[in-house]
Amino acid sequence: MGQPSPISLPDFQRIFPNEEACRTYLYAARFPEGFVCPCCGRCGEPYRFKNHPNMLRCRGCKRNTQLTSGTVMQNSKMPISTWFWGAFLVTSMTPGMSALQFQKMLGINRYETAFNMLHKLRAAMVRPGRDRIGGEWPVEVDETFVGGATQGEGRGRHHKTLVVGAVELRPRKKAPGPDPNLPSGQQRPQHRGGHGRSFIAGRLRLMVIPNRKQETLEPFVRDHVQPGTEVRTDGWISYENLSKLGFRHEAVSVKGDHAKTDQHLPMIHIVFGNLDAWLLGTHHGVSPKHLQAYLSEFVFRFNRRFWPMAAFVSVLGIAVQTAAPTYAGLYRGAWEHPAG
């Protein structure tokens, strides 16, 4: 994008000291090869107006284009610099931020505005056309229920949401980057992998699902895992046709045995535990209607944990090519959160 990635608050203030700097960065991100009119397709520098700095007018057809149109910032009354600050804070803070924290940090008057901005940024955390995981690495697939206990409705009743996940297993020596928990320059300790194992979690995918039927779980695996990958699951009947779909399926009937689960599907259950802790610790629980957006944020952070400061550039890069929800769409349920 022609700009370095900020790695600290002083760095951010140096790179984006004012609204004009943010506007220049956004223009370069939207039009890396120069301005192209979305109406007539003409290439070339547009007319600019001092009193309307976000307006670009084509020199050919004379039609106007807003700098933020077609991005998650479209139709927003917030300054572009506020969006940039928000994106930096959300992506650089390891546990993320609740909407209330976001509102206080950016000095936003209304909670609803902060809530809407955060969901728009979460929409920019799902890269269109992202790769399928697996390939040379095995993938663990399993389901879990997300949500708190239900009281006063009888034993066995709950309103939890069913979530399916898939995570790669990689040898620790094949970690894609430096350990994010170590200070810069410090050597990686010579010990076995996380939780006493010699492997780590690779890329992750999570999605809200309505049930555990075969017609639900098979498309998830097919859409998110590369053909030919070794896929490890429990003995649930809905996975029995994965071998016919081109996967090397390895199933073990765990039947609630924690020892078997820890041996056959260790990493996906560590992920599920981290997800529960993050939802409760950072957001104090979320509604089923918006759970998919939070899953997408968790996946975004998880997959970029080796490059935490590059996440800011990733969000802005996706934000300029992603449609975002409106406030009305979020509350009426018309907006469907993209799966992470």
Q: What's the CATH topology name of the largest domain?
A: Nucleotidyltransferase, domain 5
How many extended strands? Answer: 8
Q: Which secondary-structure class do the elements indicate?
A: alpha/beta
CATH class of the largest domain: Alpha Beta
Q: Given the structure, what is the number of helices?
A: 11
Helical content (DSSP H or I, runs of 4+) = 25-40%
The 3D shape can be described as globular
> Strand fraction band?
15-25%
What is the N-to-C succession of helices and strands? HHEEEHHHEEEHEEHHHHH
CATH superfamily of the largest domain: Ribonuclease H-like superfamily/Ribonuclease H
How is the topology of this model organized?
Elements (H helix, E strand, L loop, with lengths): L8 H7 L3 H12 L16 E3 L2 E6 L6 E3 L13 H13 L6 H8 L4 H13 L15 E8 L14 E11 L27 E10 L5 H11 L5 E5 L13 E5 L5 H7 L1 H18 L7 H13 L7 H9 L7 H6 L8
Parallel strand pairs: 4-7, 7-8
Antiparallel strand pairs: 1-2, 2-3, 4-5, 5-6
Helix pairs in contact: 3-10, 4-5
Question: How would you characterize this protein structure?
Answer:
The protein has 340 residues and is α/β, with parallel strands linked by helices. Helices cover 34% and strands 15% of the residues. It has two domains: 9-30 and 68-123 and 327-332, no CATH class; 139-178 and 192-305, 2-Layer Sandwich (Nucleotidyltransferase, domain 5), CATH 3.30.420. It has eleven helices and eight strands. The strands form two sheets. A five-stranded mixed beta sheet has the order 6-5-4-7-8, with helices on both faces. It has a three-stranded antiparallel beta sheet with strand order 1-2-3, with no helix packed on it. β1 (47-49) and β2 form a beta hairpin. The longest helix is centred in the C-terminal third of the chain and has 18 residues, at 266-283. It is globular, with a radius of gyration of 22 Å. It starts with 8 loop residues before the first helix and ends in an 8-residue tail after the last helix. Mean pLDDT is 84; it is low at 180-193.
